[in-house]
């Protein structure tokens, strides 16, 4: 599944530094706006200790983790919804991603200019929110004009669609994001074709200085207060430190470096895991002598859908799935051991795949 998270934020908040830490695809980092003009895409592996455990038991020829794509998108400025700066390009790029990682500057540094002249995480957040809301409002109003004409003819579907569009218009006019609208799932069809920018799930990243990593600071507190009603997670990290961590190839050296800052894991790992969770994704595994592999699926998918991410033939000709739970594999060491102890279940088309399932599919086409 080629899922993408777009990294957004005002210029000079640390987006490109963060992206460089996430991926081997290096974006130019510089102390001026718009240094990242074309979106850079980096494919990032999702950290998962379960893969190492399976590798030690199976001893496969290769191990393939699951991945998420991160897109570093050009910095946005006030007026972007009207085409200011690189606004049109920014808005087009963000429309294509599945979720938004909003980087917000929560540190002071007189050597790094701020486009607004002072550090204010709530202002920064609202600038981007407002620009995205204005663009969404424009999209909704255009569709309202079309729906009104059809609704006047007595078309029941159009009337229902118009009701939904007016709800979204009201929320956006009040400065609320589309994701905050409480509406039935089936009614979302009215705006699905609009690909609203503020309906996408969001994860906030507070980029801090080294001294604020452990104890925090007033800027983080302000950001958390501003997003408390959004049911959104705030990840605190120092992009400058993450850039240093990314340079370590030796796991022990990396662990020692983290220890110097009182960290158990890198902020990148926390960010990647949080982004994975934000998209309601889970992992199942296939395990054999040729490869141990992690597969990404949406939470709630049934066995045939899960099989389809390997190959469409697997879903089309699905017969059954053999499922081993990870703790059982860990206990009995091999597939044969699990089979001998009755720990392989045979599941049909209605089986809902669980995070961590080890699966083998039977199919016929």
List keywords for this structure.
3-stranded mixed sheet; 15 helices; alpha/beta; 6-stranded mixed sheet
Word description of this protein:
The relative contact order is 0.14. This protein is α/β, with parallel strands linked by helices and 365 residues long. Helix 1 runs parallel beside helix 9 and helix 4 packs antiparallel against helix 5. The two termini are 23 Å apart. The strands form three sheets. Strands 2-4-1-5-6-7 form a six-stranded mixed β-sheet, sandwiched between helices. Strands 3-9-8 form a three-stranded mixed β-sheet. It is built from 15 helices and twelve strands.
How is this fold's topology laid out?
Elements: E1 4-8, H1 15-22, E2 40-45, H2 49-58, E3 62-64, E4 67-72, H3 87-95, E5 99-105, H4 121-151, H5 156-173, H6 189-192, E6 202-207, H7 212-215, H8 218-227, E7 234-237, H9 239-245, H10 251-260, H11 267-278, E8 281-287, E9 291-298, H12 303-308, H13 312-316, E10 318-324, H14 326-332, H15 335-340, E11 344-347, E12 358-363
Parallel strand pairs: 1-4, 1-5, 3-9, 5-6, 6-7
Antiparallel strand pairs: 2-4, 8-9, 10-11, 10-12
In short:
With 365 residues, the chain is an alpha/beta fold.
Q: What is the chain-wise order of helices and strands? A: EHEHEEHEHHHEHHEHHHEEHHEHHEE
Report the average pLDDT across residues.
87
Percent strand:
15-25%
What is the count of helical runs? 15
The Rg value, from CA coordinates, equals: 23 Å
Helix coverage percent: 40-55%
Shape: flat
């Amino acid at each position: 599944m080629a899922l993408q998270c777009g990294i957004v934020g005002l210029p000079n908040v640390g987006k490109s530094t963060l992206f460089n830490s996430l991926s081997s695809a290096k974006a130019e980092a510089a102390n001026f706006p718009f240094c990242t003009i074309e979106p850079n895409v980096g494919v990032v592996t999702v950290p998962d200790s379960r893969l190492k455990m399976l590798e030690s038991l199976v001893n496969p020829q290769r191990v393939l983790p699951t991945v998420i794509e991160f897109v570093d998108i050009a910095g946005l400025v006030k007026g972007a919804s009207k085409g200011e700066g690189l606004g049109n390009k920014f808005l087009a790029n963000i429309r294509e991603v599945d979720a938004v990682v909003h980087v917000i500057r929560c540190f002071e540094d007189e050597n790094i200019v701020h486009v607004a002249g002072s550090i204010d995480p709530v202002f920064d957040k609202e600038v981007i929110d407002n620009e995205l809301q204005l663009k969404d409002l424009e999209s909704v109003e255009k569709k309202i004009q079309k729906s009104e004409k059809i609704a006047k003819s007595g078309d029941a579907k159009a009337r229902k669609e118009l009701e939904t569009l007016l709800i979204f218009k009201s929320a956006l006019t009040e400065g609320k994001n589309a994701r905050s609208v409480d509406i039935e799932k089936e009614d979302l069809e009215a705006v699905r074709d609009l690909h609203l920018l503020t309906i996408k799930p969001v994860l906030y990243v507070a980029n801090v200085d080294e001294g604020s990593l452990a104890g925090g600071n007033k800027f983080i507190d302000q950001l958390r207060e501003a997003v408390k009603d959004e049911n959104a997670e705030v990840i605190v990290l120092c992009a400058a430190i993450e850039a240093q961590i990314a340079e370590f190839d030796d796991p022990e050296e990396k662990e020692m470096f983290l220890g110097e800052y009182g960290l158990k894991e890198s902020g990148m790992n926390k960010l990647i895991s949080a982004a994975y969770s934000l998209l309601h994704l889970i992992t199942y595994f296939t395990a054999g002598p040729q490869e141990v592999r992690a597969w990404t699926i949406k939470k709630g998918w049934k066995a045939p859908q899960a099989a389809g991410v390997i190959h469409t033939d697997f879903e089309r000709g699905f017969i059954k799935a053999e499922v081993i739970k990870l703790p059982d594999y860990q206990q009995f060491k091999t597939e044969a051991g699990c089979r001998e102890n009755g720990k392989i279940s045979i599941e049909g088309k209605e089986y809902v795949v669980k995070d961590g399932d080890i699966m083998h599919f039977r199919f016929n086409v």
